[in-house]
Amino acid sequence: MATNEQPIPVATDGKVNQQITITGTDSEVTDIEHNDPRSYKSSPWRKFVGIFWDSVDGSPKRRRYIQKLDTYLLSYICLGYFIKQIDQTNMSNAYVSGMKEDLELYGNERNWLNTYFNVGIILGTLPAQMIQLRWVRPSIWIPCCELFWSIFVIGMGFAKNVETLYVLRFFVGFAEACCFPGFAALLGGWYGPMELGKRAGLFEQSSAIGEMVSGYLQAALYTGLNGTAGKAGWQWMFVFDGIIGIPIAIWGLFAIPDLPHTTRAFYFGKEEKEYGIERVESFGRAPPEKLTFRSIGRVFTNWRLWAFVLPYLMVGQANGGTRYFNLWLKDKGYSVVDTNTLPTAGNALSIVAAIGFGVAADYTGHNAILIVAVELLVIAANIILSVWYVPNPVILFANYLLYVGFAAQPIVIAWGHHLAAADPNLRQLLVATGNVISYCFNAWLPLGLFPTYDAPKYDYGYQILILFSVLAIGGTVAKKANTVPNPMRALLAFAFALGTYAGTNAQAPAPAPAPETYAIMPLQTNTTPFPPTSIAFVAKHPDMSFEDFKTHYETQHIPLFLSLVDGSRYIESYILQYAPRNETTTKPQLFTPPQGSEDWEYDAIASIVYKSQEAYEELGKKYAEHYETISDDEAKFIDQAKLRAVVVREGEITQFVLK
């Protein structure tokens, strides 16, 4: 394929006539560059529809690729989570549809059934994700787990007592443990920053569709099959739910593509697989790593994990009152059919809210603001339910408003995956860790806050949910603060990364990396380790010898970079993306900046990052002016005045060549 060059004129001081050229193949320029579909010139209707569903907009190659992902991966994830939610929540429908009376469950058995399920989830979640990282592909592991839990659900339809249900509920939870975090990791492994939020919302809300179907299914079975073959309607529901899951599990064996670097999906050709790797690497997503004890330790000591867990946990708990809506309906004398179907309107509302807020998050990037907005609505609903003694229509409205709260968690998940892009193990365990802690709460919290014998009015359950929303807002603000580091630290981190991996084509040796840090290596096609910022430093100090420059670079430039690297939101993604594949990289440590750094370096680096093209014009001038006076050794490493650099912006990476 021919090289596509698009010259961009650069004004100079008259001494040197230069221009910046974007260099690459047609596909590189039109596809990787256009992972933001808004940057692609397409028809107005595609632009408009693309706001709501991005696979309609962008380059043809990108559209075809995303449409395949949606057709296979996203469809299976939604179906799989749909049936998972049915199999998780059918207990609630069965309880209000005759199971309570048939099995004489007049104590706290309902909450204990949920607790046994939660214990299964807790014990199974992290091992299930680690198995996917080390031993079994997701395309095999997840469908097999789904097949097993479907069989256990069928068994629940034949249970004669609550003790049997306790055992089966535990194993259903244990098998389902791989599902939610595994699906979230798959989505985060394939979709980009402008694609993930809405799909995470759709994925999560397939559970709401599951709850709706469960309600309608239970109502239909209660009406049509109650008493057939000696079984109650609630027993038939377990049998039907389990049978539905079996073909979905079989579909998963073919639909799940694993991850871009390891995919064997039949629906991707060789070029599409290569394109997929280029695409996710342009998002800063690192390839899968072998799971080791060291990498596990790195995950659980990473601040990004715990900055994610607090808002993830709290937004999930804050709208927990939706689980008790049907108990209020039953207490008010609604029929069995109405008790099962009225909450489905709330599920429909949660679907609209989650997709709507997800679209807004993808389009604007204002994740924190949107999460806070959702939680304020949840607080309003829980305040009404805390007051309680208000007209029934107001209670009904508050219960429905709680369902809007389901829009927050998909945004938290998508945001977390962006922050964890550089660490594949962290991405895989991010939601899993949050899920374990969430289910630890669910194993005991309902017993204390929402005891069955107090239903439908609870002494302090909804008040505590208000506190959870407040903590969710606080965690979101703290997480946002951690992603906006000290501006100078971020500037330096960006610029040093820019220079470290963007060398020239000469064959100068790379300096030895500091111990326990990232290997400081150039791009494989550009082996000189000296970055543009260092070249500018040479221009600032024309009397400095080449040996003195190398000493400065190794003793001050690199340690300064390492001391500031942790202040940048994108730096780890950037390093892992360009590090040679055969080099071992580890988490950068926080070093004390060396003495001797000059203010001029700070200023130059800041201008390079925030005024990319203009800064390179200025850098090029200094570079060209100094070029006439440099030594032969310097000329070799500068490689005939060709400067290759990478400008890093949020959401895109573009290579420039300065001639």
UniProtKB/TrEMBL annotation:
Subcellular compartments: Membrane
Major facilitator superfamily (MFS) profile domain mapped to chain residues: 73-487
Entries under PROSITE patterns matching the protein: MFS (PS50850)
A GO term from the CC aspect: membrane
Membrane topology: Multi-pass membrane protein
Main location: membrane
Transmembrane segments: 140-159, 166-191, 234-256, 303-322, 342-361, 368-389, 395-417, 429-448, 460-478, 490-508
GO molecular function annotations of the record: oxidoreductase activity; transmembrane transporter activity
Keyword tags: Membrane, Transmembrane, Transmembrane helix, Transport
Matching PANTHER family: MAJOR FACILITATOR SUPERFAMILY (MFS) PROFILE DOMAIN-CONTAINING PROTEIN, PERMEASE-RELATED
Similarity-based family: Belongs to the tpcK family. Belongs to the major facilitator superfamily. Allantoate permease family.
Name of this protein: MFS transporter PfmaC
